[in-house]
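Record passed on underneath.
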Amino acid sequence: MLSTPTRWRTPKLFFVSFFLCGLLISACADDSGGAPSATSSNDVDSHAAAHEAGHPEVAAGGGNTSNSSKAAKKGEKAARNPNERPVPAFAGTTLSGTRLAMRDMLGTRLVLFFFNPEVDNAKAVGIAVQEAADVASEHNFRVIGVGIGSSASTLSRFAEEQGYTFPVLDDSSGLITKKLRLQIPVAILGIDADGYVSFGLAGFAPGDEATDSARDQLRPALRIGDPTETGDGELLSFPEAPQLNVVSLGSGDTVSIESLRGKAAIVIFFLHTCPHCHHALQAIEKIMKSLPDEQKPELVAISVQNSPAAIRKALADLNLDFFTPYLDPGAKAAERWGVTGGVPVVTVIDAEGRIRHRSQGWSEKRDGGMLRMRVAAATGANVPMLLDAKGFTGNDACGVCHRQEYATWQYTKHATAFDTLVTHGADRRKDCVGCHVVGYEEKGGYDFATRPAHLEDVGCESCHGRGGPHLSPTFVPVVESGEDKGKKDYAQVCSTCHNPTHSLGFEFDTFHPLVSHATIAGMSNEERAGLLEGGPSRDLLPTSADHVGSLACQSCHTKEFETWKASPHAHAVATLEAKGEATNTECLQCHTTAYGKPGGFPEGAKVADHGDLASVGCESCHGPGGDHIGENAKRVGTILSLGDKCDSCAILKVCGSCHDDANDPGFQFEVEQRINDQRHGTIESAATRSGESAFHMHDPDDTDVNSSLARAAGIAHDRALLRHALEDHTPVHGAERGHDETSDTPGGRG
């Protein structure tokens, strides 16, 4: 609940079950994940030991792309959980007469908005859905409405009045909802790119509150932020708790939020028939008993049902009558506290009345330990170090004690690394996920079977080891010589993911400040807020040599040249000529080779005078060839080879300087297909043949000295090519556009 960048997470409010029993929306919310629990000395440093035993993959999120990517085929997706089911095939006609079928919508994320226009909150929920539709292209999903329970004319009128810009299927016949066994008049279903249900939302707050209720659930589910919330750059600012005004079931007295000031409190909304609520209350009872009287928090346990007799009996039968429950007449407190669906909802408030922790649902494996730590921190008690004894613990546990470090982490691209995979439809790709989660393919780490949310993103344990220095004190290597001798060598940790295959132009000294806790903490609020807007604008291509034109490449790369000659890149200026823009200098920067650079297309020149450079030529993507051509020229290390690079992580950064949102919207989500359409490499690169390419850099089983030297040369090879680009800030199309290579996110400038 820090007033730092919002960390969106898929809501736990509702889980959707299709086919066997229809769509079930449960009042109880559950989650699973690793448990914060006491550690055994046998587990201390086992993670670091693996690292030092020759497995560098454990150094970055446990998974690292290097080893994992090598084992997984490019684009290979993890097998589905047996309980996952694809959405049944369905088709329908939109209100405009277009035919839409589920099979035609595969390949991108979908939001299906089911609504009956005659139901009260359909309009309010639709506002939140339309807001999502407005940014759908930026986040790679599509919104489809499904009008139900009414006539086609009523649906058309309603959709027009609401200004829906997304297509709406006419399901007034009920065929689609019947096929999906959906019996709720207003619901939102998320479908992933493979056609599987990813989330289901319903049970929205009544009346106008439904808009906020739907918005607060839908945006996290889609991994999109609130465009109206820009963030103020503060680190440790906690929101004030809303008003309570709930009534004691024992005395009839009303408890306000003001009456709790001066002492920490636990506020829990529960349902007396909910097993998860029972478990949460049992955990709270243990916490209360473990604290001395002067540090015990107040307990405000609020029933979401006003049934006094049933509440008393249920709690007594379960031996949970250690507290006096509160009633919430008219559910006003529940509305103010955002309790619109699944329970329990547990909130920890400090003595100043500010929210320090809020959770929804209950995981027996994890939430009891997390709540114990949160309560101890809020009451001033000693915080128990409840790290996962058999796996990775997650950032939220670290953040209880390391508050400032956790807050600064939220301002880094590491904190949204997994969201990037989701938006690109790559969150099940085995060759990608290792560098976007914690502990992939390690014991107790992220896995596709359980997909633990607390291990998403590049977290604390990605850089500091399992359990951090507490369990893995030797995880981070130490510099063995030079002026930094004895200091921790985080550059080695970073390089397991930020390697030439996935992170073009990465240099530790340049990018470390963008993830450094101390650096970010020392920034002004304005500077921190600016971190969310992207990193420095930089040209990723080498600039140390002169450009020579594509014809110079033809003699050695004949087949590649022929393929390029037939591609749109070779005729890029012709498209400008057809539009009368062949003299537009802003356009020529992306439609010629090396505009305004040494040996490139001269500024202000006529297209007809420089035919070989009047196209997007070889050097537009591979960098200047002046040091690469010639009979005695060095082949390796003088040109940028792209055949061994990751399409979505590395090549996109090169392409993205021109194929940006302003000129080619959606390119970042189509990059692999677009590259395949013009892929022209027919020979193995010199770097690959010599063992110096990115594909030769991470073999933990390779102990050969020469191979190790070749890997080191490979790192130097790509870094040398890109070093000069670090000083090149040439604007593209008249404005600088930034990217941040410390991020694990596929994406380029713009």
